[in-house]
Amino acid sequence: MESTQSNSVRSHFILVHGLCHGAWCWYKVVAALEAAGHRVTAIDLAASGTHPARVDEVHSFEEYSRPLLDVVAAAPAGDGERLILVGHSHGGLSLALAMERFPGKIAAAVFAAAAMPSVGKHMGVTTEEFMRRTSSKGLLMDCEMLPINNNEGAGVAIIMGPDFLARKYYQQSPPEDLALAKMLVRPGNQFMKDPVMKDTSLLTDDNYGSVKKIYVVAKADGSSTEEMQRWMVMLSPGTEVEEIAGADHAIMSSRPTELCDALVKIANSLNTC
């Protein structure tokens, strides 16, 4: 795949994984974007992937998102490089926090089958709605809840079960990617009790609302269904939409070429503005 972006402006994609996953889940997309001539950084959020912390050692959503916030904060401004944040699943909430903090540094934010909050509502509303829809239908299957204690007090982390991964997350993905996920997923905390998740005034029109948003709908998603994804888009008018047919929730595993094509298209559209 060849990039047609302008030589004067380079795109830097920052890829943010979802709950229980890590930077490893982006390996196909990283290779494809780099082959297309783009700079790519895939990060591990705290207690995820190869990050050394345990899930009970991360005491807030801010701390969990710190690896992303630090990368965006350190990005030089005005050097001819455009930052494009790409978040998957629960990683969309970390994207939102970075967008609110550093709106002037981010050219666009791409929510790939991701939790996308809206101005005027608390960030946890997306997770609450997802849990309401999945719990009532038994879609969490063999996922387990792990009791943890941190500065929030007693809570739980989610451990994704192998049947859930196979039937609701990676059902359209190659078996090798499912096997990789079963080996590498870690317990994940949704931080539902965190004050950041409950603050209805956190996300503002001037900051979060000012960043260009694109939602990539995974049309064969068995976890966060297409209906759920379009509900989030409806809450944020002006969000552009890309659709990928046959993409399960692990969109970067089931349809990596199509996702990369969409991301390159987004980068090229920024360069024509």
UniProtKB/TrEMBL annotation:
<dbReference type="Pfam" id="PF12697">
    <property type="entry name" value="Abhydrolase_6"/>
</dbReference>
<dbReference type="GO" id="GO:0080032">
    <property type="term" value="F:methyl jasmonate esterase activity"/>
</dbReference>
<dbReference type="GO" id="GO:0080031">
    <property type="term" value="F:methyl salicylate esterase activity"/>
</dbReference>
<dbReference type="InterPro" id="IPR029058">
    <property type="entry name" value="AB_hydrolase_fold"/>
</dbReference>
<dbReference type="GO" id="GO:0009694">
    <property type="term" value="P:jasmonic acid metabolic process"/>
</dbReference>
<dbReference type="GO" id="GO:0009696">
    <property type="term" value="P:salicylic acid metabolic process"/>
</dbReference>
<dbReference type="GO" id="GO:0080030">
    <property type="term" value="F:methyl indole-3-acetate esterase activity"/>
</dbReference>
<feature type="domain" description="AB hydrolase-1">
    <location>
        <begin position="14"/>
        <end position="262"/>
    </location>
</feature>
<protein>
    <recommendedName>
        <fullName>AB hydrolase-1 domain-containing protein</fullName>
    </recommendedName>
</protein>
<dbReference type="InterPro" id="IPR045889">
    <property type="entry name" value="MES/HNL"/>
</dbReference>
<dbReference type="InterPro" id="IPR000073">
    <property type="entry name" value="AB_hydrolase_1"/>
</dbReference>
